[in-house]
What does this fold into?
Amino acid sequence: MGVGVGLGCAEFPFSGASAYWRWIDMCEAGGVDSIWQTDRIVGPQPFLESMTTMAALAGHTRRMKFGMNVVSLAFRDPVLLAKQCATIDVLSEGRLLPAFGIGSPLAPEWVALGVDTKTRGRRTDECLEIIRRLWREESVDFSGAFYKLKGVTISPKPVQPDLPMWIGGSSDAAIRRTARIGTGWQAGGDPPAEAARVVAAIKAAAAEAGRSIDDDHYGAGFAYHFGNRDALAVRRAMDAYAKRTGRDATHAFAIGDADTILARLAEYVDAGVSKFILRPLGGDDDAILAQTRLLIEQLLPRAEARWPKRPKVTTDQ
It folds into this structure.
């Protein structure tokens, strides 16, 4: 099982578009597996909107895949989102990695958009079914509690014949949702031990449902920094994480040298995870670029050597 290391942004950490594209170009040239954008719509912190960012990445890059980590479905219209994903997949020649979730109950979008948080699970389930069917079927009828469709078609369909549908979340409902309809699972802030529990639970639930999810379709993420915890950007990020989640920040950050970050990857690999979204911590454009360069030069070659990617074996019918 090969390991794929991608990079992601939560808040927009750059001074502007020029610095962002310098970062993307470095990732594209340096062998980074994929780029991920956290989904936020409202709030005082700077965040790029996920779907427009994916569209821009489709035009700017040629090799890397990219995804949203993760789109909160209750905040979006499922027909429009299905169309956006299909369009981006076509224009990127099959490099979109869509990932979906129900959204944090603490997110400010619920109030801003007038959506009841108590409905988020049911809305998400309806959205997932609508999107999946629109990607695959010529005409979709749907009658749910929140969405109703009659003879709806989108064209062109995604380039990927089975466009991935990764699901986020570690609750029992998220586990059942992933097992029933997902093609992969993306952890939130889960430490390795919790990720191992969720991976095992998804595999068991999928087997009960008569499905299977590829072993290399389980993902996790954490922030990293080559250096020490005294760096201002690290202290701010860890304090903000603890304040936002009420959880110990240690497991969500890997601070040290390449050995430290590689060891954290290994903990997750032992838990059944092989796809990663790492967030470089730095106080300005140059710091983010420097952290990314260190990852490309010091970590990626060692990760590839330790967990080489193997071509998937296909059987001709």
